[in-house]
């Protein structure tokens, strides 16, 4: 028990000692007494409460340190926020200043468009031609001069300019480009206000916009981006205006057009979260565009001079033939026209790509009225199917044409006369072309375009066609008229005829029923001509009857001494078989040196007047002396002049004639040349009397 008490006293002593010496130095000179825990029972404060004040002080100091750190962090955060906000304000102000100085903010949209955009067409693909519209796909490169749009001076190399360039590049990259969410229609007119066409873009047209390249490069390097633009063109229905504008464009080597946009909506291709939706709708935009025609290769007509279609249109071949269908005969014709295009065929240079086969175009060809050009007379129904050929150096368009001639009315005879006159004189002729709508309006249209009747010029043939190939007179005799006052000529006239090779299908169907020659007679063969005969006088008439004698040429040609011209038509017979034609020509050939199918016609020349030319009495007397001294062999004489022929074509009926049989087709002014032998007759005594 003593030991326990001692232990308790020690514990108590320790407790007391610790409590009392809490604020005393740790090292002291006094002895330290240790007591046992048993001594604690004599005090009121427990041992746990004695420790807590120190712990609270430590926690208090730790909280103060944490609050200090938080305040410091918040201070730095606020400082950074203020700096960031200030920087953002400066940046926004800088961007605002950049945009405010940009021309796009103060100039008209059309001015911005014309100055800022760069365009390069790579190719144009013709997709479809139908319903009066042309669908195209344009492949091009487009670029925007972003420095000009933002008002950045390319000559400014300062730090501020660099910052503005960087800001502009970032802003342009963020927006990504422009987009037209809906289809847009443009109206294109000539500068004089003539409407040309409407152009409609496809929906969702996007135009990427890339910033200019180098930041410090003084020369703007505009970055181009490829774009694909679907377009639908609706040309004007006034073909006369289109032809007039095309002629003026060629004559002035260029065209100025005005592009009008009633409404255009644009928005940015990208929509950043920090930027509100940028969308703008503009109305009644007008812009001008100048188009210059390029210099074409040698051999093609050059812009700036009158356009001659004969230089680029080549009618390679055409032919006519008679088709019989259920007892009804019609004239059919086929032609192949070629139109050269001065476009390089290499893929790198070719811009316009046409489909190999375009739609078939049904057309009506009409003749203009002679007395009243406002009237037209349908002549033929044709179909044309253009094809594009890219073989060789340049592209070409071949247009196969097939058609059928329509019935001919009496009212169109003067117009048909003019057409034949121009053809025989190798002159171009004007015809009217209009679409042929064979189907009712409720059905699918048979023609891809709708346009009014349009006059076009048919190219003239390369040289004057020659219908009469030659003429000779068998058993030619000179005599006197019944009253003995005039010289006459008698004999059997043979004339060879043939249509040009392209019309040779009609030659076997020609039936020449009458001829009316008018020729000068020469002592010997006629001298060479400086120019071709008088085919330019050729005309077509139907049953016109007697004709006045045309005046003599001035001056009279050398060697000519007389003129033979019957007073009326000579009945003629077309020789159908070779046996009959041998009668006309000992060495008969059915094809002449030009490759033309030749037939012969026969007519009797009975006492036709032979008039001595004024001032050519000496030449006539010299010829008669030759005749008197020929001793039965005869004398060679030449003839040159024009003739009228009246014929019919098997299968083609012209108005007129008796009993509804139809009239003859008369061609006048057909040049010919030939020779014959004049023999002795019983009338030489009369001729000798005239020589006295």
Structure description:
- The structure is a single chain.
- The N terminus and C terminus are likely disordered.
- It contains ten helices and 27 strands.
- It folds into four domains: 49 residues, no CATH class; 192 residues, no CATH class; 142 residues, no CATH class; 224 residues, no CATH class.
- With 692 residues, the protein is an alpha+beta fold.
- Helices cover 21% and strands 38% of the residues.
How would you summarize the topology of this molecule?
Elements: H1 2-20, H2 52-100, H3 109-116, E1 117-130, E2 133-144, H4 146-150, H5 159-175, E3 177-180, E4 185-190, E5 195-201, E6 205-208, E7 224-235, H6 239-251, E8 254-268, E9 279-292, E10 313-325, E11 328-344, E12 352-353, E13 361-368, E14 376-384, E15 387-389, E16 394-405, H7 413-424, E17 429-435, E18 454-458, E19 468-480, E20 487-497, E21 510-523, E22 539-542, E23 560-564, E24 570-575, H8 578-582, E25 599-612, H9 617-628, E26 635-649, E27 665-679, H10 684-691
Parallel strand pairs: 1-12, 19-27
Antiparallel strand pairs: 1-2, 2-7, 3-6, 3-8, 4-5, 4-8, 5-7, 8-9, 10-11, 11-16, 13-14, 13-17, 14-16, 15-16, 17-18, 19-20, 20-25, 21-23, 21-24, 21-26, 22-27, 23-25, 24-25, 26-27
């Amino acid at each position: 028990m003593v030991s326990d008490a001692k232990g308790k006293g020690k514990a108590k002593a320790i407790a007391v000692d610790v409590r009392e010496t809490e604020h005393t130095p740790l090292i002291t000179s006094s002895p330290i007494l240790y007591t046992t825990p048993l001594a604690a029972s004599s005090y009121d404060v427990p041992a746990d409460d004695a420790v807590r004040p120190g712990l609270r002080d430590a926690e208090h100091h730790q909280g103060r340190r944490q609050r200090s750190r938080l305040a410091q962090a918040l201070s730095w955060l606020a400082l950074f926020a203020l700096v960031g906000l200030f920087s953002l304000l400066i940046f926004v102000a800088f961007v605002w200043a950049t945009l405010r100085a940009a021309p796009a903010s103060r100039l008209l949209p059309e001015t911005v468009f014309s100055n800022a955009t760069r365009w390069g067409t790579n190719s144009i693909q013709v997709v479809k031609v139908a319903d009066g519209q042309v669908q195209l796909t344009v492949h091009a490169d487009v670029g925007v001069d972003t420095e000009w749009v933002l008002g950045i001076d390319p000559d400014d190399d300062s730090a501020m300019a660099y910052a503005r360039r960087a800001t502009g590049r970032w802003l342009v990259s963020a927006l990504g480009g422009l987009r037209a969410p809906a289809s847009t229609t443009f109206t294109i007119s000539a500068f004089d206000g003539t409407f040309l066409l409407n152009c409609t873009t496809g929906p969702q047209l996007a135009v990427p916009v890339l910033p200019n390249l180098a930041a410090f490069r003084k020369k703007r390097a505009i970055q181009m981006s490829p774009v694909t633009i679907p377009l639908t063109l609706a040309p004007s229905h006034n073909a006369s205006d289109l032809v007039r504008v095309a002629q003026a464009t060629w004559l002035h080597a260029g065209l100025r057009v005005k592009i009008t946009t009633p409404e255009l909506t644009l928005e940015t291709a990208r929509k950043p979260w920090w930027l509100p939706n940028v969308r703008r709708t503009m109305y009644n935009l007008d812009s001008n565009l100048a188009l210059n025609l390029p210099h074409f290769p040698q051999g093609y007509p050059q812009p700036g001079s009158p356009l001659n279609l004969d230089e680029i249109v080549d009618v390679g071949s055409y032919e006519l033939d008679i088709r019989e269908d259920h007892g009804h005969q019609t004239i059919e014709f086929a032609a192949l026209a070629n139109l050269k295009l001065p476009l390089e065929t290499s893929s790198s240079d070719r811009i316009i790509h046409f489909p190999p086969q375009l739609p078939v175009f049904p057309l009506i060809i009409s003749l203009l009225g002679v007395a009243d050009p406002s009237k037209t007379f349908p002549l033929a129904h044709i179909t044309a199917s253009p094809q594009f050929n890219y073989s060789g150096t340049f592209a070409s368009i071949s247009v196969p044409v097939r058609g059928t001639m329509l019935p001919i009315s009496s009212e169109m005879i003067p117009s048909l006369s003019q057409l034949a006159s121009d053809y025989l004189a190798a002159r171009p002729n004007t015809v009217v072309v209009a679409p042929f709508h064979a189907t009712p309006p409720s059905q699918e249209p048979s023609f891809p375009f709708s346009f009014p009747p349009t006059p076009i010029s048919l190219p003239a043939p390369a040289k004057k066609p020659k219908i009469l190939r030659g003429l000779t007179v068998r058993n030619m005799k000179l005599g006197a008229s019944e009253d003995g006052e005039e010289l006459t000529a008698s004999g059997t006239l043979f004339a060879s005829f043939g249509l040009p090779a392209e019309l040779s299908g009609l030659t076997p169907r020609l039936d020449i029923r009458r001829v009316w020659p008018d020729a000068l007679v020469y002592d010997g063969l006629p001298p060479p001509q400086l120019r071709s005969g008088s085919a330019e006088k050729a005309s077509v008439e139907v049953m016109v009857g007697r004709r006045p004698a045309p005046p003599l040429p001035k001056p009279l040609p050398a060697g000519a001494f007389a003129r033979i011209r019957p007073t009326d038509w000579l009945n003629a017979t077309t020789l159908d078989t070779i046996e009959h034609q041998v009668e006309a020509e000992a060495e008969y050939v059915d094809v002449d040196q030009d490759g033309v199918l030749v037939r012969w016609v026969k007519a009797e020349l009975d006492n036709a007047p032979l008039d001595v030319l004024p001032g050519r009495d000496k030449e006539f007397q010299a010829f008669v002396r030759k005749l008197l001294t020929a001793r039965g062999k005869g004398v060679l004489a030449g003839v040159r002049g024009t003739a009228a022929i009246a014929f019919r074509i098997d299968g083609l009926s012209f108005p007129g004639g008796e009993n509804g049989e139809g009239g003859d087709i008369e061609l006048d002014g057909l040049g010919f040349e030939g020779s014959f032998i004049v023999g002795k007759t019983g009338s030489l005594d009369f001729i000798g009397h005239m020589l006295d």
